[in-house]
Amino acid sequence: MAELKNVERELSRFRRRLLIATLVVVLSFALLIGRWLWLQVIRHRQYSLQAQDNRIAIVPLVPTRGLILDRNGILLANNFAAYTLEITPSKTRGLDATIAALRAILPISAFAERRFRNLLGMSRSFEPTPIRNKLTDAEVARFVAQRFRFPGVDVRARLFRSYPLGALASHAIGYIGRIGPAEQARIAEGDDAANYQGTDHIGKTGVELQYEEQLHGVTGFDEVEVNSVGKPVRKLRSFPAVPGSTLVLSLDIRLQKLAEDLYGQRTGACVVMDPRNGEVLSFVSMPTYDPNLFVEGIDPESWNALNTDPRKPLLNRVLRGTFPPGSTYKPYLAMGALTLGIRTPNYVLNDPGYFMLGDHRFRDDKPGGHGRVDMHKALSVSCDVYFYMVANDWGVDGMHDYTRKFGFGQHTGIDLPDEARGLLPSKAWKRHAYKLPAQQRWFPGETISLGIGQGYNSFTPIQMANALATMANHGTRLKPRVVKLVEDMKTRRFAHTPVEVAERINPPDAMWQVVHDGMVGVNTEKDGTGYAVFKDAPYTSAGKTGTAQVFTVAQNQKYNAADLSRHLLDHALYIVYAPAENPTVCVALIVEHAGWGAEAAAPIARKLVDYHLLGLYPTEAEIEQISGAKPKPVQFQFAGGKNGVPAVPGAKPQAPPAAEAARVAKPSPGTPGRPGQNPAHAPASPSSTQTQGDAIQPWPAPAASTTASPAASPAAHTQRTAFDAQCGGRYPRPGCQPGPLFTRFGARHDNPDADEGTRL
Description:
Blueprint: H1 7-42, H2 44-55, E1 56-61, E2 68-69, E3 75-87, H3 95-105, H4 110-121, E4 129-135, H5 137-144, E5 153-162, H6 170-173, E6 176-178, H7 181-189, E7 201-203, H8 206-210, H9 212-216, E8 220-226, E9 232-239, E10 247-249, H10 253-263, E11 268-274, E12 279-286, H11 300-307, E13 321-322, H12 330-339, E14 349-351, E15 354-357, E16 360-363, E17 371-373, H13 375-380, H14 384-394, H15 396-403, H16 427-433, H17 437-440, H18 444-450, H19 461-472, E18 476-478, E19 483-488, E20 493-496, E21 501-504, H20 509-524, H21 531-534, E22 542-548, E23 571-578, E24 585-591, H22 597-600, H23 602-614, H24 620-627, H25 658-665, H26 714-718, H27 722-727, E25 758-759
Parallel strand pairs: 2-10, 13-25
Antiparallel strand pairs: 1-8, 2-3, 3-4, 3-5, 6-7, 8-9, 10-19, 11-12, 11-24, 14-17, 15-16, 18-21, 19-20, 22-23, 23-24
Helix pairs in contact: 10-23, 10-24, 12-14, 12-20, 14-18
């Protein structure tokens, strides 16, 4: 019986095993419940967000860059859609092998591959990088048929920036280019990092750079649900991008085209402004360049051609080139000398044709001199001796302090980047600019040269134009501006950029009138230096010729311009504002190494003023006679009021009435100076009935002034309303109110100052 089972022992063993199993089961369930509480309760928010991030991809929506138009709605910068071939390196089976296989079916140049690898160094391996831009439909079809062979390679449609008028006004408009490392770092450190997600390009120069914020717009995004391999399944919600604002420039691109044609192959700069509000109507720096070359990266051949061109097409002469003003500086010296009592209007001297300072003879341009000269005649005939004596009696610091009020030697405040401040010399400047004490001393002979705009004087063309506008505006200096209207993307209406007053000089009316009359005499009196060019003009204008030497001629030496190399010829300058009674336009221009201002520069100014005031566009033969080159045709496109772009307020008619167009296109015999528009320059009209040969709309002939000018009526001049003061002084409200919408010369090399520009 001892071999019988011990039931009690086996039951105890069973109970022990059951307890252990129960404890294991309970512990297992406790662990499961604890893990569930940890994942679903305690860490629910963290893992929920992580799962959401894995499920949802945020795709940035790059905004459409804003358009740039001229004052009449003509398209200057736009966008067009094209296909891009892009590679995501992390998804390929070998980058080099992929590029080699792609080259077998699509043309990929060595430059395109170099650019791709440069971009690759600035981006992350999981971001798509373009290797070919602007694919044709045939190339897209060729790739799509073999897409299965190229993982990580895809074709994407995107917008490209385009400048349809090419080199026309390129220094003002500027261009965009790919975002570089320095710009990436600046964006990352700023507040706009999120707004530039997905953006590849940014403004580099000109308006494109200055108004980058307005042109760029606001980036949107799509929330897209993706699967485990990152493929989009469905769009959950979308926040659309806000397009960049359309900018309307104050430039009249037809006037700009005329000015550039009148220069031809010559170099120089020209600024046309409206003195009433500071609007820049023409911004010419010759030669120009094609900004389209820079948008996707310029090829080495084009870059070398531009960078080694001795004419320096990349130099913005209007803002960065500095020139001696020559005799165009005399009106401002005259104003200061009269205002400060250094000269009186009736002071007369007998000009012998030279001025002696010690043993040095400073010559006049006219041998034998101009005889008896007062202030009026000194301006109209441009008497050097008179202003030699003014400078000698006044002194360098006195001239510096007064002419600085006209904006010389300082930034004008124009709404464009990288403006130089030029050089307005003084004794303090020379002490700073030179290293040796003997060089820091100011010599009396240096003062004499300043009296005729030579010596150390070196100003930018925009300063010359702004000073002229200040003179025309009776002493109120406004900040120049090239952007006239900015589109408000909320209201889809254009808002005017503000008129800003920089300084008010307030010269005495009687003294201003003396200088004004002297400048009028330049163009209206037979011995005036600009009379030959403006004698038959149907309006009265006030001007001043200038000729600036680029090398020193000994006092007993004469030179023949025909014997000199071109780079040693004088610069030709001219300034003018019109109508003289109530100026609405002023022109300041320089033609480099062209000789006398009256012969080389004044004819250009005359054609520009004729066009602006009267609508007279010269023929090809007239343009070629002045420039020495035939103008090239350009086709204009109007964007204002089309394709979602608001109509530009105050734009001039795009097409004249048929009868008037026919009359202008076919002037009657015996009516000289009334040519129709050359067909090669006719703007494209949105109307299907307008042809390329349509004439431009003629401007109304200026009516004779029926009211006395403020200069002639001091009482009227003092009666300014608040609106008149805001708009710059003495002009009627209709001119201001919104429409129905330059190595420093002689300076030490170890202390350069890039802000003084490039002396030319």
